[in-house]
Amino acid sequence: MMKVITFKSRSVPVYYPNEQSASVELLHHKLYEMELDFDFRKKWRRIKSVEMVRDVAIFQYNDGTKLYLEVC
């Protein structure tokens, strides 16, 4: 499934399996916690999409690199 999440005026698609919809809510909460992290906010501008795998968010950058973030 897919859901669009917005953080700092930028929307990004989040892909996740049906049974992991609660993980998307955890991701939203984690993004709220990282709102004051300037380094993460700079990285967020280059993110193309997010994939949820259990309790890990995999951020896919435009150049193909990935950033892994534990959301639990």
Automatic annotation (TrEMBL):
Protein name in UniProt: Uncharacterized protein
Organism per entry: Paenibacillus prosopidis
